[in-house]
Amino acid sequence: MLFNTFSFFTFLLIVYVAYLFVFCRKKNLRNVFLLVASYVFYGWWDYRFLLLIFSVSLLSFLSGKFIDAYREDKRKSKMILWANIVVNLLLLGYFKYVNFFIDSAKMLLSLFHIQVDWPTLNVILPVGISFYTFQALSYTIDVYKEKVQATKDVVSYFTYIAFFPQLIAGPIERASNMLPQFSSVFKFDYDKARSGLLLIAVGLVKKMVIADRLAVYVDGVWGNLHNADGLSLVVGLLFFSFQLYLDFSAYSQIAIGTARLFGFELMQNFNSPYLSVSFADFWKRWHISLTSWFRDYLYIPLGGNRKGVLFTYLNIFIIFLVSGLWHGASWTFVVWGCLNGIFLIINKLVKWNPTNFFTGLLGAVVTFSLWTLSLSFFRSQSISDAFYVLANMGSSNSDALYDFGLNSMEFGFVSKMLVALMVLELLIEKKGELFYKVLNFVPIRWIVYILLPLAIVYLGVYGASDNSFIYFQF
C-alpha cells in the first residue's frame, strides 16, 4: 500500500475517521486500534511477514524486560543484549543478504579456481525490515544503557515498532521519543492536523509531480545505458540525484504529516541537504534518523573520536561501509558507502569549514558534485555500469537529449521545478521566519491549499507514471 495510491488514502480516511470518533478517547483502546491498523497496512503487502514483524517486536520487548530484571547482574544482562542483537541481525542477514553472501563467496573461490555449485535461494525481501529491525535494536540497546526504561506496556511497544506512517521507510524512530507519546492522551489539535495535511500535500507534489517525472528520464538512460553518452549521462545522473532526494524526503514528509494527524511527532529526516557546504554538513542533513543511528549505536561504541586520529578515520570508514551494505545487498552500494566515507575523511583532514559566501558556494558545489558522482554506483546494477557512466560523461554526444522519455516541454518543466525547489529551500534556509510568516497570511495560505491538490491531480495523477518509493527496496 503506497502513499501515492488511492488505496492508501481510502485506508487513511477510514482509519482516521474511526480514530477520531471512536478509538482516540482511551489510551489503551487507541493503541490497540493503531496496532491493528498498522498490521493491516503491513499485511496488505504480504500477510505472511506479519509473523516476522511480530517476532522482532516480541524478541526486543522480552529482551528489554529481561535486561531490566537482571540489571544487577551485568554478565547476564549483556548476554541477553548480545543474544537479541545477534538474532535480529541473523534475521536481517538471512532475508536481505543471504544470496549476496553466497554469490560473493562463489566469486571469491573462483579467484582460486575453485568452482562450487551453491544454489541461489528464493528469498523475498520483507518490505521495511531494515527500518523496523534497527528501531527494535535501538530500544534494547537503550534499555541496557539505561537511556530508556524498559516498558511494561506490550501494546504500546508493538505499536511503536509497527506504527504504519513510518513503518516501511522511516524515519527510524527512538523509543525515548515515541513510547511517551503512546502513553499520553490524544487531544485533537486543529493546527497540528492542518500542518500534517500540508506536509502530506507537499510530499505528494515532490513525489508525483517532480520525482516521478525525473524517474522517467533516469530509467530511460539506465535502461539504454550503452546508447547514452555525454550530456544525457550527465543529465541522467543529475536527475537521479534529485529524484533520490525528492522521492525519499517526500516519503518522510508524508510519514511525519500522517503521524501528526494522529497526534504523534516524528523526527525530521532531511534538512535541505543540497545546500550543504561540506560533507560533514551534508551528513547532518541527509537521512538524519539513519545517520544518527549509526553515530549512536556503531560509531560511538567503536570509540568514536576518543582513540586518536587514525582510529577516528577508521571508525568513520567502517560506519560508511556498513551504511552502504545497509542500503542494499550489492557491491555497488558498498562502493557508494566507502566513497562517501572517504569524502568525509578528506573533509576532516583538510578541515574544510567555509566562513564566507564564496567559500560556502565553492563547498556546496564540490559537495553536491562528489555526492552526485558517487550515486552512479547507487543507481547502477553493476560496478562496470557505474564505471561506464563515469568514463563516458565527458564524451562527445551524438544522441538527442530528449530520447529518454521526456520531450522538450516535459524536460523544461521538470528542470524549472528543480530550480524553483532549490530557490525555495535557500529562501527557507536564510529567511525561514519571514517565509512562514508570509505563508501564514490567510489569502496566501489558501492559494497554497488550492494549488497543491490541483498540482497533485493534474500534474501528478495524470501527468506522470506511478512509481513506488525508492527506499522501499531497502
Write a structural description:
It is globular and about 65 Å long. It has helices at 6-23, 27-46, 50-69, 74-111, 129-144, 154-162, 175-183, 190-223, 231-261, 279-282, 288-299, 309-327, 331-349, 357-379, 383-392, 408-439, 442-461. By secondary structure, it is mainly α. It folds into two domains: 6-186, no CATH class; 191-277 and 354-461, no CATH class.
Topology:
Elements lengths: L5 H18 L3 H20 L3 H20 L4 H38 L17 H16 L9 H9 L12 H9 L6 H34 L7 H31 L17 H4 L5 H12 L9 H19 L3 H19 L7 H23 L3 H10 L15 H32 L2 H20 L13
Helix pairs in contact: 1-2, 2-6, 3-4, 3-5, 3-6, 4-5, 6-7, 8-9, 8-17, 9-14, 11-12, 12-13, 13-14, 14-15
Give descriptors for this structure.
single chain, 2 domains, 474 residues
Distinct helical segment count? 17
Estimate percent helicity: over 70%
Order of helices and strands: HHHHHHHHHHHHHHHHH
Q: How many distinct beta strands?
A: 0
Outline of this structure?
This protein has 474 residues and is mainly alpha-helical. The chain has helices spanning 6-23, 27-46, 50-69, 74-111, 129-144, 154-162, 175-183, 190-223, 231-261, 279-282, 288-299, 309-327, 331-349, 357-379, 383-392, 408-439, 442-461.
